[in-house]
Amino acid sequence: MRQLGGCAVAWMTCAVLGWAAATVEAAQPLGPPRVPDAVRLEADISYADSDHPRQRLDLLLPRKPASDKPLPVVAFIHGGAWLGGDKRGGWGNVTSYVVSGQYAGVSIGYRLSQDAKWPAQIHDCKAAVRWLRGNAKKYNLDPERIGVWGASAGGHLVAMLGTSGDVKDLEGTLGKHADLSSRVQCVVDYFGPSDFLTIGKYPSKLAHDAADSPEAKLIGGAIAERQDAARNASPVTFATKDDPPFLILHGDKDDVVPYNQSERMDEALKKAGASSVLVKVEGAGHGFGGEEINRRVRQFFDKHLRGVEATISDAPIAAPPRPGSRPDRPAAERP
User: Fold this and answer.
1) Whole-structure pTM value
2) Which strand (E) or helix (H) includes residue 145?
3) Which of 62, 107, 271, 318 has the most CB within a 10 Å radius?
4) Is cis: bond before 72, omega within 30 of 0?
5) What separation, in Å, do the N-terminal and C-terminal C-alpha atoms of the chain show?
6) Tell me, what DSSP letter sits at residue 224?
7) pLDDT digits (tens, 9 = 90+) for 114-152
8) Residue 74 and residue 305: Cα distance in Å, rounded?
9) Where are the domains of the chain?
10) CA 17 → CA 79, 82, 204, distances in Å?
11) Which CATH number is 2-333's, of 3.90.190.20, 3.40.50.11030, 3.40.50.1820, 3.40.718.10?
12) CB of 135 within 8 A of CB of 46?
C-alpha cells in the first residue's frame, strides 16, 4: 500500500463476482496485517455476544491521543458483494485517522449472505454501532460522534445505517446494548448499491436481476420475485429529513454498480431534505484512490465529527492513473 497525502491508499485488486472488497482497501494480505506503532489494536471483539466469527469488530486506538477528551469514531465496513471480504482490510482506511490522535477507528465484520439472509447484515452493523455506544466510557469514545464509511457492499450498508436509524424493524436485538441508538452522525458511501429495484436497468457487467446475482443471494431470490425484500434492502426507501449528512463518491465508468445508483441515493436524500454531496470520479471504474479524494473525505469527517468548518466541494474529481499504468494510454485501455 503506498502513502498519498498521509492517507493509506490502494487500488482495488480483488473481487467477488466482480465486486471488490473495498475501494481504498488493499487486497487481503498474505500474513497478518500490521498497524503502526502509534496505534493500539484490539481485534476480534464480539459485538453480538455470539460465537460467529463474522460478528466481530476491530478497534484501533491512538496510543497518544491528541487530548483527554472522548474521541470521535470513524468506522469502516468492507465490501465484497455481501459474499466475501474481511474486516482486516479496513485497517488501512482508518489508520491515518487514528495515527493523528484525533480519532478512534473501527473495522466492522458482518455475516455474509451464505451465512444469513437480509436483514441479518444490517442487524449486525447496527449491533456494532450500539456496542460502540455501550463501551464508549471504557475506551474513551464519544458516543455522539460516530461516522461510518464503506465501499461497494460496504457502501450499501453504511447508507442503510444512515437512512434507517429510525426504522425499528431493521434494528434487530443482537448484543447487550439493544436499548441504545444505532444512529450515526455522518456517512461516506463509496459506490454502494442504493436501489435494488432499479439497479438492473442500467449497464453493468453483472446481471443484477438474475436469480444468482449478489443481490438475489442477499435477499433470498431474484429481485423480481422478492420485490418487498428488495425494497427493504434499498437505502433510498428510508431517506428522511433527519438522516445524517452523506458524502457519496462514485466512478462514472463503474461497470459493476452503475453510477445511477449514487445519483438515486443523492436525489432521495435531497428530496427528503437531508444533506448530501455527490462527487463524480471521472474515468474511474469500481475502485479509485487519490489525494483529492482523501482530502475531501478527511474534510467531511473533520467537519461533522470534530466541528471543523468547511464546505465540501461537489466538483468532479479526475481519477488518477492506476499504479503501473501508462498515462499516455486511454483510460479504457488501462488494466
Assistant:
1) 0.89
2) strand 141-151
3) 107
4) no
5) 18
6) G
7) 999 999 999 999 999 999 999 999 999 999 999 999 999
8) 9
9) 2-333
10) 12, 10, 12
11) 3.40.50.1820
12) no
